[in-house]
């Protein structure tokens, strides 16, 4: 009888050892992800991104091209409006193109290396490697990591959940969360190609600018469209709307919203200018590129400007921090305060 118990115990012990040896540790999986990044020459991926930072969810289709060592092409298109922006990085610099306005800006920037990027594979892996407290769970055929983020406004979006396919290590989804673990940004990857090949001029500035304008033609009617005023929903320092003024300008109206409280700021909204079709040269950007998730703007001193659906927004404040300005900008899209 004792012999039977010993045999059973030995069998269970062997099973335990085998299962323990087969268990994946977070650092082991992170190492494999990093190894894949280092061996890759480039990739293409498609994703659908949803933002919950305003009153209503906003959904965007994203197409990403990346080729080593540091070439990028990211096409961001509003799923409902058809408006788009493209960010392009090559040996000449970093460019942001808004084809409907026939505008392109050139930045001196180290994008995308300075912050988290929820739709770039190597950025997600870098976030995992940087966070020594990253947690991992295994769910069927998925590796699920929870890590800290490296956003400029990381206090608003401090956490993220990144899911990879267990077999291919391809990204499946990303959820970026606030301090209460509410998901404010979600990215669902629909197609990933780790063996992508690119033509020699795939990241050429002029070629991509021309292609972007063909895909989303210059909209000469943008300047004639009426726009509805949008309000920020972010609550910072008990700030409230003090005054709203409408001023007549050459192309319609300019709306000036003044907010007061512990953190004062002014938000200006007006129709964006459409440049003549003959304008083809990029405009040097006098400031830093600001990645708002739904658009790429310009941060200069105490101001932040960006364009969405033919409307130009300018946020100015001497009391908001850079991260707080990003938070306010990302929340613009609400209805008037009651």
Compact description:
Helices cover about 20% and strands about 40% of the residues. With about 350 residues, the protein is α+β, with helices and mostly antiparallel strands.
Structure description:
The protein is α+β, with helices and mostly antiparallel strands and 338 residues long. Helices cover 20% and strands 41% of the residues. Helix 2 runs antiparallel to helix 3 (121-130). The longest helix is centred in the first third of the chain and has 21 residues, at 2-22. Residues 7-22 have low confidence and may be disordered.
Could you name the key traits of this structure?
338 residues, alpha+beta, twelve-stranded mixed β-sheet, seven-stranded antiparallel β-sheet, 21 strands, 20% helix, globular
Mean pLDDT: 86
SSE class? alpha+beta
- Strand portion: 35-45%
**Widest sheet: strand ordering:** 7-8-9-10-11-1-2-3-4-5-6-16
SSE ordering: HHEEEEEEHEEEEEHEEEEEEEEEHE
Number of helix segments? 5
State the low-pLDDT regions, or none: 7-22
Please provide the count of β strands: 21
Shape field: globular
Q: Span from first to last CA?
A: 80 Å
- The Cα radius of gyration reads 24 Å
Helix content: 10-25%
Main beta sheet: 12 strands, mixed
